[in-house]
Amino acid sequence: MLSDETADETGAERSTVHRPIAHRLPTHRSAAAPPGAGTEPTVSVIVPALNEARNLPHVFARLPEVDEIVLVDGGSTDDTVAVARRLRPDIRVVRQNRRGKGNALACGFAAATGDIIVMIDADGSTDPLEIPSFVQTLRAGADFAKGSRFGPRGGSADITRLRRAGNKCLSVLVNALFGTRYSDLCYGYNAFWARHLHVFALDSTSPAPDNADGRLWGDGFEIETLLNLRAARADLDIVEVPSFEHSRIHGVSNLNAFTDGMRVLRTIAREWRPRQRNAAKTEVRDGARVG
Fold it and tell me: Is the CB of residue 192 less than 8 Å from the CB of residue 231?
């Protein structure tokens, strides 16, 4: 449930955007029909945004046909919300109740009503035209479809050598500790069945703590690693999906290779719990099992 601060806001004026067709994982909150049962699962796309008014027209123009778009506004001081409502009259807008991308996603997940939840970025770096591949992967039997820039047919026009090297080292560490075979640990383009939302144990209701940055653990960019690790610990059927990361269209990224890398390391340390893993567990392939 969302707190009052993150309650839905209704839009008004809208215009039509022509979108390509979508494609299509299982879940907990609604009794969604299993793949192949004849009922198409509904798809919710979560878009965290902070001052992304100039980027939204590019992102929304490439969105496939989906059932719900949830824009999570982080307190934008530009026209992000107005632009979103103008472009998509059917959009749902929620306000995050703390700070950071992790908190924005938690609020968006809590507000989503679809059987499948997909998360994309509002800066144009994640390509909405790839959504059908994620959904189809879930429809084919996966629980969690994880984007990868470093598997076959993946790529990035944005990542620096330092971030690439750091991601590689962190991926190797996680694979050794968690028994996974992730090729790309620190990437936030993912999709999962909403019925598995409880696995991630995200807090979308607590008020901001009285600390330096006003965030709880998991509210920052460490969210991407947190989701991947908790999906693995829960023995979800994880499948990597090839993805190409584009450069941000407008504006400057808030990522910091050192500080965010340290948060990822702390996330790994906090989430690792030595235990016996199932023998038949992790097998990664392009478009196949990863954790």
Answer: yes
Task: Give Rg (Cα) of the chain.
Answer: 18
pLDDT in tens, 8-23: 433 333 333 333 322 2
What is the C-alpha separation between 50 and 28, in angstroms, rounded? 30
Report pTM: 0.79
The strand ranges marked E within 160-227 are 190-193
Give the model confidence (pLDDT) of 249-286 as tens digits.
876 656 555 676 688 889 999 998 765 444 334 444 45
Alpha carbons 139 and 158: distance in angstroms, whole number:
30
The 8-class DSSP code of residue 286 comes to B
Locate 289 and state its tokens.
Answer: 């099992």
Tell me whether strands 92-95 and 68-73 are parallel, antiparallel or unpaired: parallel
Closest-CA residue to 260 (of 167, 191, 160, 177) = 167
